[in-house]
């Protein structure tokens, strides 16, 4: 009975978990041979271009280029992945699967442009190339930017394919984009070295998950966002419609650059530099451009944040008063370091520390703060809603 339901793909773990419920169809995965045999490769605009990944076992599925000309009002999309994963995202090609709040956002190119227009402009910035600068005040939790992918490629592409195969699939993926989108992609920044398209991908990708498999997502609009070690925004994307939202973590003033962090948050200066080497640049954000004394003070705070977190998470003999003191110190340091994006994680650590100290009122207070922050942070379909439910279950069991 289940298998007959149109909204469940038997081979797809996502099946019916759409937040924005659309009837889901379940296209059959096709490679180039199957598509030519049946003479149909819809919903894709071109016959898939497939290669056998040279560095994977012989039984592995091919990696194919699937392109759509009409994706997001004709901006186009090329996906380099297995036939099965391509079939699992076929429904997202339909503009109708983008929920109205995202589709109608002023920065979305699907919006009918009678509204106020985007809240940012792309400008040249000293030492950092181009970047997005706020043209009006952006409120905390406001979606500042909506973006859609132009290229998606399986994350292990560079290892799975031989160099000639990589060149061939990238050439095909770019050639099959509408010409305007080709120009947009080829004009993106690149700083990691090597062949142009591969370098553009390495410089600009966001890691996204399709059916549990990591992919590189190239989102040209949000590619212009620079890194900041004290970011004022973060990004999230929806598996259901592939749209990316850039959200303000605190109020952003007119003229302020909108930034996110490319590196895990909370690293000290040396570790951040090491991590950002992979991206091929030396960070020139305001913190990294400060005096040595300011950087040292920041490092001390960041080291202390890690220590306090470890004490709260690991010590089982803390009293309520001790948790009060440590939680207060942790939140003060996070505020001083402007690492608000991490609060979701720390609220849970504090809630669990209060549970350990049998102060259930405070535990509930922080569990509530954690849940509200996750909802603001990830939206209702965020994976961590499950983690939150576990926190509440653990708390209920103790009461
Ligand atoms: C994803 S792009 C960001 C937009 C880019 N600035 C542009 O002009 O399109 C990443 C590149 O921007 C530059 N960049 C980003 N954040 C930076 C920072 N904090 N300091 C210096 N350069 C930065 C680096 O060249 C990096 O490789």
From TrEMBL:
Keywords: Signal. Pfam families: SET. The keyword Zinc does not apply. The keyword Disulfide bond does not apply. Gene3D superfamilies: SET domain. Residues 118-263 form the SET domain. This is SET domain-containing protein. The lineage of its organism: Eukaryota, Fungi, Dikarya, Ascomycota, Pezizomycotina.
């Amino acid at each position: 009975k289940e298998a007959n339901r149109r909204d469940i793909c038997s081979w797809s773990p996502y099946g019916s978990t759409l937040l924005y419920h659309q009837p889901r169809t379940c296209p059959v995965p096709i490679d180039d041979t199957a598509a030519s045999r049946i003479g149909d490769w819809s919903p894709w605009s071109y016959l898939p271009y497939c290669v056998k990944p040279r560095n994977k076992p012989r039984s592995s599925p091919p990696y194919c280029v699937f392109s759509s000309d009409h994706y997001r009002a004709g901006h186009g999309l090329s996906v380099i992945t297995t036939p099965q994963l391509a079939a699992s995202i076929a429904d997202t090609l339909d503009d109708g699967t983008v929920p109205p709040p995202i589709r109608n956002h002023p920065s979305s190119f699907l919006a009918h442009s009678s509204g106020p227009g985007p809240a940012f402009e792309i400008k040249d910035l000293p030492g950092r190339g181009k970047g997005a600068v706020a043209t009006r005040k952006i409120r905390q939790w406001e979606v500042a930017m909506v973006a859609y992918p132009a290229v998606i490629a399986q994350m292990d592409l560079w290892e799975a394919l031989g160099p000639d195969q990589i060149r061939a699939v990238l050439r095909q993926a770019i050639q099959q984009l509408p010409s305007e989108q080709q120009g947009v992609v080829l004009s993106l920044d690149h700083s990691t070295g090597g062949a142009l398209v591969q370098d553009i991908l390495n410089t600009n990708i966001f890691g996204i998950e399709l059916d549990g498999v990591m992919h590189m997502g190239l989102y040209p609009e949000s590619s212009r966002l620079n890194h900041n070690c004290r970011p004022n925004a973060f990004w999230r994307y929806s598996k259901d419609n592939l749209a990316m939202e850039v959200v303000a973590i605190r109020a952003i003033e007119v003229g302020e650059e909108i930034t996110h962090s490319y590196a895990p948050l909370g690293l000290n200066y040396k570790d951040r530099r090491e991590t950002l080497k992979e991206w091929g640049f030396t960070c020139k954000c305001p913190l990294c451009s400060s005096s040595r004394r300011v950087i040292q003070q920041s490092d001390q705070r960041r080291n202390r944040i890690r220590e306090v977190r470890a004490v709260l998470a690991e010590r089982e003999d803390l009293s309520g008063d001790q948790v009060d003191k440590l939680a207060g110190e942790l939140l003060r340091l996070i505020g001083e370091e402007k690492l608000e994006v991490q609060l979701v994680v720390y609220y849970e650590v504090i809630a669990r520390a209060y549970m350990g100290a049998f102060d259930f009122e405070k535990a509930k207070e922080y569990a509530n703060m954690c849940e509200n922050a996750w909802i603001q942070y990830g939206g209702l379909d965020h994976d961590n809603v499950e983690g939150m439910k576990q926190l509440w279950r653990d708390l209920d069991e103790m009461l």
